[in-house]
Amino acid sequence: MWITRAQKVAWIDILKPTKADIDFVKKQHKFHPIILDELLHLSSRSRVDFYANYLFLTYHLPIYDKSLKTSRRAEIDFLITKDKVITIHYEDLEPLDTFMRSISNNINFKSQALQDSAHCTYFLIQEIIHFSMRQLRHIEDNIRNISQEIFKGKETQLLEKISYAKRDVLDFSIISAPQEILLSSLIETGTKFWGEETKIYLNDLAGDYSKVTQHVENYRATIEALETTNGQLLSAKTNNVMQRFTILAFLTFPMLFFTQLASIDFIGKFVAATPLRFWTLTALMGVIVVSLIITFRRKGWL
């Protein structure tokens, strides 16, 4: 547990909450027992609830997991009163660590961020949104690498990379989309709780987060376009291979036809009667094959 105080507000940060931590929070304020019980485990949905003298907010943020090659969900719970902001999370989170270092090392930022619980909440969520923007960089890098390789004849290898990138964009979108709704709801509930003067800050958070969703949508459209292009290139390559095999099969037809004729008893005896007949038919078959090759080359089929 980490506690920092200013004249009008205190920020209490709890990592991996225990029963003792929840009892400490209970002594700080008369929060609803069901809310306190929820703090001991992860929540399945994002939410913002307005009570008579506090707000309860559950915020989910996407974090890229290198082992899974996709984004997973992390959670921060907020209990907000007029003079306290309590954050509860279940793993170390970069945005909270960054915010903690900022108020520890920068007196001006601390005085600005801890003016009241509204400003503290604003700067905390703003740091989380900035972190989400940074988390999009690996998706951008993956898409850039795919776009650079897509015309280098690596269609089969790119199938796996595109599939991983699509899954990452989808998982990021599933996690991030509800937060846009949450921040829109916070404009109304936060204004009721803190007053009309805080509406501009809450609108700013919603506006900043819309940039995250816009980037995700752009990446989704881009990776789908790359997938379509790669699929068309792969299909064209496959068709080209099949065309060549078909032509080769057609070129072997005269030889196959000659072999089948020769297997017939009386024709075989006729061909084998003199060497001249055999070599004449062989030359004729060669002329037919060469003529077909020349014709196919002129047509651009070979």
UniProtKB/TrEMBL annotation:
Q: Which domain of life is it from?
A: Bacteria
Q: Which Pfam families match?
A: CorA
List cellular component terms (GO): plasma membrane
Task: State the organism of origin.
Answer: Candidatus Giovannonibacteria bacterium GW2011_GWB1_47_6b
Protein known as: Mg2 transporter protein CorA family protein
Give the molecular function GO annotations.
cobalt ion binding; cobalt ion transmembrane transporter activity; magnesium ion binding; magnesium ion transmembrane transporter activity
What subcellular locations does the record give? Cell membrane
Q: Where are the transmembrane segments?
A: 245-264, 276-296
**UniProt keyword list:** Cell membrane, Membrane, Transmembrane, Transmembrane helix, Transport
Give the protein family.
Belongs to the CorA metal ion transporter (MIT) (TC 1.A.35) family.
Transcription regulation among keywords:
no
Principal cellular location given in the protein's record:
membrane
Q: Which PANTHER family match?
A: CORA FAMILY METAL ION TRANSPORTER (EUROFUNG)
* Membrane protein topology class: Multi-pass membrane protein
The UniProt entry, under Gene3D superfamilies, shows: CorA soluble domain-like (3.30.460.20), Magnesium transport protein CorA, transmembrane region (1.20.58.340)
